[in-house]
Each structure stands twice: as structure tokens, then as C-alpha cells.
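Exam revision sheet. Question 4 asks you to relate a sequence to its structure. Input first:
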Amino acid sequence: MNVGDLRGILQYVPRFRDKIFVIALDGELVEMPVFSNFLLDMAVLRSLSVKIILVHGASFQIERLAREQGITPSNSDGIGITDDLTLRVALDAASRVTHEIMEGLTMVDLRAASSNAIIAHPVGILGGVDQMNTGRVERVDTQALHLFLNEGIVPVLPPMGFDGEGRTYRVNAESVAVEVAEAMRATKVLFFGSHPPLTLAGELIKQLAVPEAEDLLKKKKFADQKVAGAKLEFAVRACKMGIQRVHLLDGTQDGALLAEVFSNEGIGTMVYANEYRQIRRVMKKDVRAVLALIRQSVRDEALVRRNHQDILQNLEDYFLLEIDRTLVGCVALHLFPEHKSAELACLYIGKAHENRGYGRMMMQFVEEQARKRGVNLLFALSTQAFVYLQQKGGFVEAPPDVLPPERRAKYMESGRNSKILVKDLAPIPSV
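Answer key, C-alpha cells:
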């Protein structure tokens, strides 16, 4: 690990200290070799004063145990009818998973306790069909969970709920995680499955705002990824209940927990309800960081040299891209109102975030801003990025006389011999 990586991690430590993370774990992962390292990663979070509530599933174990006993379970995931035989198998399977988790947590020196903090009622009759022993979360005993957390104990919650009469109900694990997170005002929910996270056209989906996730679900974009798609539905529900960020992760990937928590890009799919990614104006306090961001590109003569005063004098022209409150890129839009033209300048994306579409995003943002201000011609001057501007931004090369006179004079004086690229933004006349 290099110094930059360590600094990047350290920015999250004070942000997450004493915060609550709810981790939902598919039962199958408990039996995989990677599980021991997963528990070590949990121990790292606890050492940084992150409070963890662990919710586990048991579908894999229920199906296996049912096969061994010659039983056909009425359902294994807690969604659908749970008959008496299936409930019996589910109780046995869930108890075994809980025990294995408790053993594993003990091995990494974490104190843990299984809890009956989930108060459930029967789902009842749906569509004329009695769901029997399937339950829904009615209430979470937050007092009990806070007592555990305040003593440094990790609560381990099986996919079971209990009512006041002592009856037990099979409850879906993801549903438990969402309800617990809402009741405990958790900062994050992290769903760990035994399968890859969400992809579209073979590409991992890194981030989804709630409206984007809802749109994809509505269009049934994940029909071939049923398990991950189901977790996405719970992620959206969690965000709507006040959880700002929910993560969908491949639990078979070693180190997934720490890689997701301590980076602003992560390695899974994050669904967010707050402003995780934004483009905003540069403020005075940002100038030093912007100069540091572009320093190497200036040295490489890809960007024009700017100093603190240069940016301050044109502060309203500059915008930055933030991801998880980390500066990722910048761009400037210099207006020439008399000529209805504007210059796209100082476009830069940090090396760690290249090839992720952020440069194109910034160009599109600048175009939108230019159009709003009545600009008909957008131009850019480039010595090294002209191919990118042509291929990704739709710019074409043009002679110097397209530039406004004052800008053309500076261009001739600079001696940089930049290529001049333009893009027509003039509105198409109506017929």
C-alpha cells in the first residue's frame, strides 16, 4: 500500500467512528474459505470504533438440510409460504449458521451475542393463501441492540422473528437488515451475496441513485440476475427509509468489505439517497486543492499554468467534480458574451479516476451551462487532449479566426501552438 492509499483510507476513519453498519450475509458465505478473512476485516472495522450488527441468511443451509431429510421446503428465503416442516428445518439450519458465525467471531477476538431483538408478526393471508409461519418485522428491540453495541459486542441476528407469545417466524434476512438499519439509524447497509454484484452489458454498475435504481427495476433490467436484483429492491427500500448508502457486494471476493468501505469508488454496487456525486462551483477554500490536482498536468504542459490569483479572479468560471466529498476533477467555462461563445478550459480528471466517463460528464455539464447562457459556439484549446475532445466531445478542428479577438490575441502570444477545437451549440431553427 502506498502513502496515497493510506491517506485516502484515513479520511474515512473519523467519518465512520461510532457509526453503525448493518452487514447482511448470505448463509452460503459462512462455509466458504473467504469467510475467515471476512471476519478479520470486520475486526479491523471494530478496531476503528465502527459498530457492527451482523444479519445472516440461511437459504443455502435450509435447502441442503431439507435434501438430507428428504423434505421439499415450501420456501428457503423467507419470502412465500413457510409450512411447519420448513420452519423446523429453518430453525435448525439458522441455529447452525449462527453458531458457526459465533465461533468465527471468537477466533478473531470479537465478542458477539445472538439476540431475539426481532419482534415479528405473521404475514397472514396474501391473495387468499395463508403464508403460515412466514413473518414480517413488526418492531426492532433497539434498546437491546444498543446495550450490546455500547459494550463492544457484535449482535448476530438470524433470519427469525419472535412474537409476544413465544412463537417463531421465518423472516427474510434482507428485510431484517433493512428494518434494523432504519430502527438503529445506521449509516450503511452492506449486502454480501455469494454471486457477482449488478452488471449491465457486462459492466459492473458502480453507483446508482435511487431514481436510477427504480427505473432499472421497473424496466426489468436484471431478469437474468434475480438474486442481485432482489437485493437491489431492498437497497432502494432502505434508502427510502432514511439509510443514505446501501452496498451490494460479492462476498466471495477477498477483502470486499474493506475495499468498499475505504474507497470512494468501491468494488461493488452502491445505491445512494444523498448527494454522493456532484458537480459544483469552486469556492475559495477549494482553490489550493484544485491547483494540487492539476499540478502534474501543468508540468507536463497539458494544461496552461494557473496560480491561486488566476483562479480567484475568475472563480465563478470554475467547477469541480466531487465523489464522496473527494475532489476528482475540475473544469472551467470562460464566457465571451459579446460573441455568444465560451471556452471549455482546465478540464482534468485525477489519475485514479480516469476511464470512468467522468471527463465526458464534465464536458456535458459545461455544454449545458453554456447553452443556458445563450452560447452558440463552444471552443477549446488543447496541446495533448485534442483527440479525446474530438472523439468523446464531438469537437472539430478550426482556424484561429473563430476565436473572439481578445482570446485570439492571447492564443497568438502564448506560443503553445494549441489545436483549436469548436463545437456548434446554436439552436436548430424550427420549421
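Marking note for examiners. Residues 67 and 264 are 43 Å apart (CA to CA).
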